[in-house]
Each structure stands twice: as structure tokens, then as C-alpha cells.
Amino acid sequence: MQYYPPLLVRLIKHLSRLPGIGEKTATRLALHILRWDCEEVRSLANSMIEAKEKVALCSTCFGLADTDPCSLCRNPNRDQTLLCIVEQPSDLAALEQSGAFNGLYHVLHGTISPLNGVGPEDLKIQELVVRVADGRIRELVVATNTNVEGEATASYLFDLMKPYPVTVTRIASGVPVGSDLKYLDGVTIKRAMERRQNLGSA
Ligand SMILES: [Zn+2]
Questions:
Q1: Ligand 1 centroid to residue 74 C-alpha, Å
Q2: Which residues are near ligand 1, the ion (C-beta closer than 5 Å)?
Q3: Which entry of 10, 28, 54, 77 is 20 to 30 Å from 166 by CA?
Q4: Which helix (H) or strand (E) segment is 23 a member of?
């Protein structure tokens, strides 16, 4: 990198701050950007600035949005009685892309993790209670990840919601579609066996 002009070195250093981008990749990206015409580079820079300035958290669901409330929260065609709880905006995006859910969302921005010093007060849980207390939500679908923290958060939410007239459900977990039983870990197989479904009985 010491053979490059200082302005290029500065760009490489900025790019290498991105996750998963080491110095080699950053150099390759920077050299690639230099081959673009000025208009393309300006458009890239502008889209970064505009996204940073205009994308914020929706004050209702805490998903990422460039309007407040976001388009999902404002959509009257979505089931207003069904609320899916996810850890991160990326989980919301994944669920939306799957087309599997047509209710509303609530993004916690993490999971309860005492080992990492994250308690319920560090997440958007108080805000969730306010939404549920409103009385319109009938079912909470807890779609936190199926690791230890995700499960602990799900059971915390289950206890927390006991005083409210709302059903708390958990997304199913088990054998992933297209996978081979012999390659799965014991916990996954055990969970799949516990949550087996009836395919019809005689
Ligand atoms: Zn929203």
C-alpha cells in the first residue's frame, strides 16, 4: 500500500474499515472505483450519505425506514392483530423476502444476554409492552434466533406477556429443508423430534 499515492491510501483505509474487507480487498475495490467514471463514483458517494442521513428507526416497529412510521406500519392491508418479534432489522428483511408473514413487526435490536451485560432495558421491550397494552394485538410470534440468547429472550417475553390478553407463539425449529439427518447436531434433531407434526392419522 505504501506505493500508492496518499489520496488512494486514504480511500483504501476507509474501505478496509468495512466488515469482512481486509487491506487486499480494500485495495482491489479502491482500484476498481478509480476505473469508474466520475458520475458513477459520485452516485455511490451520494447514496451512502443519503442513506446515512435519511434512514432511521421507525418509532413504532424500530425497523429501518426512510419515513416515520415506516411503510409496513402504515400498510392497512397487513394484519394489525399479528405482531412478529425479531432481533434485528436484517431478520425483518429476511422474513419480508420470504413472503411468509403478513402481520406487523417489532425489532428488539438484540437479545437478552447477561454474559454480555445486555438486559431487557437495553432492548425495545418496554416499547413492545406499550404496543401490546394497546389491546389490538392478538398474537405475538417470537421469531428470535434459536440459539441460547434467542431462546432465553423468547421465554422472558412469554413470562412478560402473561398479564396481557395475547397469545405468544414461537417460530418452529428443527430439520432445515434440504438437509441430511446424519449431518445435523443432536440439539436440532432433538428439537425436531419434540416438535413433530401430524401428517394425518388413520
Ligand atoms: Zn414501522
A1: 7
A2: 58, 60-61, 69-70, 73
A3: 77
A4: helix 23-35
* Residue 188 half-sphere exposure toward CB, CA atoms < 13 A: 11
- CA–centroid distance, 89 to ligand 1, in Å, is 11
Looking only at the bridges linking them, the beta strands covering 79-86 and 64-65 are: unpaired
Length of the chain: 202
pLDDT tens per residue, range 148-180: 899 999 999 999 999 999 999 999 888 888 889
Give me the residue label for grid cell 446424519: 182
Secondary-structure percent of the chain, ordered helix, strand, coil, rounded to 5:
45, 15, 40
Q: What's the start-to-end Cα distance of the chain, in Å? A: 71
Cell of 196: 413433530
Residue with grid cell 472505483, as numbered in its chain: 33
Distant-in-sequence, close-in-space partners of 71: CB < 8 Å, separation ≥ 6: 65
Tell me the backbone φ, ψ of residue 141, rounded to 5 degrees.
-100, 110
Q: Which cell numbers hold the place of 44?
A: 455511490
Cα–Cα distance measured from residue 64 to residue 71, given in angstroms and rounded to the nearest whole number = 10
Q: Kindly indicate the confidence band of residue 2, based on its pLDDT and cuts at 50, 70 and 90.
A: low
Share of the chain above pLDDT 90, in %: 80
What separation in Å is there between the alpha carbon of 37 and the centre of ligand 1?
37
Task: Please give the pLDDT value at position 198.
Answer: 84
